[in-house]
Amino acid sequence: KLLALPEAPSYTSDSSTPTLIFNPPSSAPSVYHTPLKFLPKEDKRRQLYAAAQQHANTAAHRRQMSPIAAPGTPLSSPSFLPPRPTSALPAPISEPYEKTYHLSEEDVAEIRRLRASDPDTWTRVKLAEKFGCSQFFVGMVSKAPEKAAAVSKEHEDARRKWGPRRKIAREDRERRKVLWGRDA
């Protein structure tokens, strides 16, 4: 109702004479979608529905049986669980990442020494590649305050060159970020 969309062709007429509007339902109702709450206790549809559900479950369990639901276990009894998928999941695209804790205290001291000696040459990326760890870990064990100050100065210089529209847009964005955490 709120959108200004044109009316569907079946609702608009080309002439001023009354016309028949044909708007059928999306599909015919099915007895399988009748809620059990509305069926009498002795209705045959209740038994048919339960039999169809049990058949679907047993067929799915027959196709792919888990050792957890093997005969003799509590999960082997027939239930109204959804059917199991017919195929296994596809192979993973890449190997799962496992964390490795392979750096010794000497390696961490070497990372700190290299980073302190020349932070422009020994960046986080280069140190992470050399020692086989993450850039985040390099940043945790060795801080470079001079490098951080230089980067923030570069950012401040770039911000001074912004026009008024960009400044207003960034300020609005910051205000919206602050409001994200609040209950509105």
Structure notes:
The protein has 184 residues and is an all-alpha fold. The protein has a domain at 144-183. The chain contains six helices and no strands. Helix 3 (124-131) crosses helix 4 (135-141). The longest helix is centred in the N-terminal third of the chain and has 20 residues, at 44-63. It is flat and about 85 Å long. The model has no long low-confidence stretch (mean pLDDT 80).
- The arrangement of helices and strands along the chain is HHHHHH
General shape? flat
Helix share of residues? 40-55%
Structural class: mainly alpha
Low-confidence stretches: none
Q: Based on DSSP secondary structure assignment, what is the total number of beta strands?
A: 0
Main β-sheet description: none
Oligomeric grouping of the chains: single chain
Number of helices: 6
Separation of the first and last Cα atoms: 26 Å
Radius of gyration computed on alpha carbons: 33 Å
Provide the residue-averaged pLDDT: 80
State which percent range the strand residues make up.
under 5%
Brief sketch in words of this structure:
With 184 residues, the chain is mainly alpha-helical. The protein contains 6 helices and no strands.
Features:
184 residues; 6 helices; mainly alpha
Question: Helix and strand layout, with pairings?
Answer:
Elements: H1 44-63, H2 105-117, H3 124-131, H4 135-141, H5 145-160, H6 164-180
Biased composition (Polar residues): 10-27
Organism: Clathrospora elynae
Protein name: 60S ribosomal protein L20
